[in-house]
């Protein structure tokens, strides 16, 4: 299925009915994959800063781009779910490695920025994830003015 050939149902944006069980199950999978990617990227960034093992930013950047293109080109099916999740985790790993030089610069300026940013991001992500997973009505998922 081509991504650009999909019909988008704009009426669903204004529908405030209850969320179906299948939609909530899909949300659980999406937020679980986001959480996996966040922790894989954080771990690989930490490994890169501590060990300085991967100093090939061009190669890891190209690898991350290649994995994202491969992920986009792989059709979604039950058989390819694990393969696509591995590609997404690989993309997160290489993206985390690419953050190494930026993190080293932040450490040189003020080392407390990194844990503050990570904990803030993780807290906000957790709050939004829990609200999306446990909200029964769609109206709770929209951010009001």
TrEMBL record:
A Pfam family of this chain: Bax1-I
GO cellular component assignments: mitochondrial membrane
InterPro entries linked to this entry: Bax_inhibitor_1-related
Membrane topology (UniProt): Multi-pass membrane protein
MF GO annotations: enzyme binding
Subcellular location: Membrane
Keywords recorded for this protein, A-Z: Membrane, Transmembrane, Transmembrane helix
One annotated GO biological process: cellular response to unfolded protein
Residue ranges of the TM segments: 30-47, 53-73, 85-110, 116-135
Family membership noted in the UniProt record: Belongs to the BI1 family.
Protein name per UniProt: BI1 inhibitor
Species assigned in the record: Centropus bengalensis (lesser coucal)
Gene name tied to this protein: Tmbim6
């Amino acid at each position: 299925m081509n991504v650009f050939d999909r019909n988008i149902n704009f009426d669903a944006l204004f529908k405030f009915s209850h969320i179906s069980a299948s939609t909530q199950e899909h949300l659980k999978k999406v937020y679980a994959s986001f959480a996996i990617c966040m922790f894989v990227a954080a771990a690989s960034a930490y490994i890169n800063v501590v060990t300085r093992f991967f100093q090939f930013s061009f190669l890891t950047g190209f690898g991350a781009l290649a994995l994202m293109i491969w992920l986009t080109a792989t059709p979604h099916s039950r058989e390819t779910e694990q393969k696509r999740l591995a590609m997404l985790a690989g993309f997160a790993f290489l993206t985390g490695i690419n953050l190494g030089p930026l993190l080293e610069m932040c450490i040189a300026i003020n080392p407390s920025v990194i844990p503050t940013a990570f904990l803030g991001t993780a807290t906000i992500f957790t709050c939004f994830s829990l609200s999306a997973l446990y909200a029964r009505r769609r109206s709770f998922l929209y951010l009001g003015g």
